[in-house]
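Form 7-S
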Amino acid sequence: MNKWSELFVGLILVVGAVIIAYYSQNWGAWNFWSAAGEFFKGGAFWLVTMIGALFILLGISDLKN
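Output:
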């Protein structure tokens, strides 16, 4: 595929996923919007945790010098 068709297909997939997630709020167990929110919160938690661990490791490294 060329770059424009890849960009177009990617855009369709992303927009389609957002639309399906939005309309799935009333589908009971198939609520993709809630699942996406939980995944985002988990990702944010691990991002903050890993940045904290990075700063601890950098601080320990600086103490050696």
